[in-house]
Amino acid sequence: MHNVKRVPLSEDALKAKQTREHAQLARYLNLTDTVLTKRKNKDYSNDAFESTTALLRDNPEFYTIWNYRRQILLRGIFPQSSAVQIKDILIQELSMTTEALRRLPKVYWIWNHRRWCLEAIPQGPDDDPTQWKQSVWNKELYVVERMLDTDPRNFHAWNYRRYVLANVAHPNSETHELAYTTKKIESSLTNFSAWHQRSKVLSSLWAKGTLSLDSKEEEFDLVKNAIFTEPNDQSAWIYHRWLMGLGADKELLEREISVIQDLLDEQPDSKWAMDSLVHYKSLLIQTGPNADKLTLTNDCLRLLNDLRTIDPQRRTRYDDLGAVLKTNQ
Amino acid sequence: MSLTTLLVGKHVSYIQNLGKNKDLAYHRTTHLRMNGIYWGLTALHIMGHPEALDRDEMIAYVLSCWDQEAGAFGAHPEHDAHLLSTLSAIQVLVMQDALDRIPDLERLVTWILSLQQPSGVFAGDTFGEFDTRFTFCALNALSLLGRLNHLDEEKTVDYIQRCRNFDGGFGAQAGAESHAAQVYTCLGSLAILDRLDLVDKSALSWWLAERQLPNGGLNGRPEKLEDVCYSFWVLSSLAILNKVPWIDAEKLTAFILSAQDPDNGGIADRPGDVADVFHTVFGIAGLSLLGYPDLVDLDPIYCMPAKLIEKMGLRKDWKALERRTE
């Protein structure tokens, strides 16, 4: 159980809880029994469908019942329905999962059912066969944005978002997505999920040539601003490492080292500034014979020594990195 | 109250009592029952009490979850077959030395293999939810059954590689953010397939080491809260990379111990919260990898007793901390 505080119950309180639960338990067992019996009897009627609604409202983690519900739709209800009716039923299903996700935003089975419903939307209407699908899919981004408003780090919601984006054919969807990550990052610099999404969207935009590679400079400005605002937050530092990982020559390494050095001068015990300096200086050592290897190595060893003191939890890592630098000296 | 030692006796009786109080929560969690048995039994093995639960009763229960229509195991009698419960069932049968009791091994292997998607990832069941968790479940199960040779290895590895991010970590699907539990499933999968050469070891070890928070606990992603279960997901990954010393073992040990329930036994996600068997096994598994005294060695890839995995010829090149004597 996540995030449930332990509260010691007195004997009386425990008894009261048991009495309270007694009727609820009987109802639950009765309902489970009813649904499982119908399932065993291959009952794909409307009545069976309603009974799964009741059980799933009570317990949306009962995956077998979601499976049964889909079987009822496929084997019992859809064969007797028109395309319009099927579409309407699936839209109702989507509302049901929205409601369930509002209560339990991290239950895999609910998200899974939602995907199934989306993919099952039939073609139609006759004069514009993609219209139903498009109008339903287009609403999904709105729904998932509300979920991310509530919990901006919910990885289920982010994964779902990427799934929807990949399936909604919209020429500007990646440019919009970039703007969305800007908005999420601006509202919380610690939202690494948004930084991650940004790295994926930018990679794609750059690869396709939709966005000029010159915009990389804007990214450096964005991340610099974040690092100076929240120097103890990992998110922007990890993003910085991604930007640099795209290909950093001697010039860029030296420029960014100097930016981080400025920060370190302002905040002399910034662990992430020190760790990043060690990383980029180590890369600079490898850029060629012109680099001042000895000075850089000594800089790194001094920084690693400081890191041992301010971040003793990871001192073995700093020792190991130092040992490698010394071996290569 | 400060909790500085592992309350083995309390945890053993906590696990023994799990099936006794059949309240609403017990009945509402039938979909996790098979996993729960694996978690409980593994915890007992690691604490040196493998016989604390009745063997015959357990095997009979596992067999009662066989889904005859699919040819695999569900989480509870009359529940549909799923990879999550199927792996747990196989693991329980391995620990009980009863693999030969599987009703139809050939059908089971066929069912597992049938879940691989064209992209190479595995679905959890025939309804198609896919995730690198299921890839790991499939690989783990096939290797325990000695049937890895039936797998399309290239396709499998290809998808895992697509889930790798610039920070060295892995996500649930291609494009997804790195998450410690998914790092474990992808790293474990690559370890089982002897393909750790595909891992950016220095970036990933760095990312994993940064999961430790000042209070000693580990989180699963940057800027998130600590949780005892990451003591396993992160530590096992570090053990596979031979980098357990990159975090502070003493502080993590103290954090896990502080999340114990001193009255009723069991370990919670965080100090002061309600214990459950999931956090109990992953807390104890973490302690074993940290060399906590008197615990049994745990294989970080299979999350089962190391000796058992060794005996099956499945031991890989991982490294936990030396067991301390006190």
From TrEMBL, chain A:
Class of enzymatic activity (EC top level): transferase
EC number assigned by the record: 2.5.1.60
Keywords from the named record: Prenyltransferase, Repeat, Transferase
Catalytic activity field: geranylgeranyl diphosphate + L-cysteinyl-[protein] = S-geranylgeranyl-L-cysteinyl-[protein] + diphosphate
Recorded GO MF terms: Rab geranylgeranyltransferase activity
SUPFAM superfamilies associated with the record: Protein prenylyltransferase
GO cellular component terms listed in the entry, alphabetical order: Rab-protein geranylgeranyltransferase complex
Pfam hit, one: PPTA
Entry's Gene Ontology BP terms: prenylation
Function: Catalyzes the transfer of a geranyl-geranyl moiety from geranyl-geranyl pyrophosphate to cysteines occuring in specific C-terminal amino acid sequences.
Similarity comment: Belongs to the protein prenyltransferase subunit alpha family.
Name of this chain's protein: Geranylgeranyl transferase type-2 subunit alpha
TrEMBL record, chain B:
Family, per entry: Belongs to the protein prenyltransferase subunit beta family.
Lineage start: Eukaryota, Fungi, Dikarya, Basidiomycota, Agaricomycotina
GO molecular function, one term: metal ion binding
Keyword terms, alphabetized: Metal-binding, Prenyltransferase, Repeat, Transferase, Zinc
Subunit relationships: Heterodimer of an alpha and a beta subunit.
One BP annotation, GO: protein localization to membrane
Record protein name field: Geranylgeranyl transferase type-2 subunit beta
Biological role: Catalyzes the transfer of a geranylgeranyl moiety from geranylgeranyl diphosphate to both cysteines of proteins with the C-terminal sequence -XXCC, -XCXC and -CCXX.
Organism (species): Marasmius oreades
Catalysis performed (reactions): geranylgeranyl diphosphate + L-cysteinyl-[protein] = S-geranylgeranyl-L-cysteinyl-[protein] + diphosphate
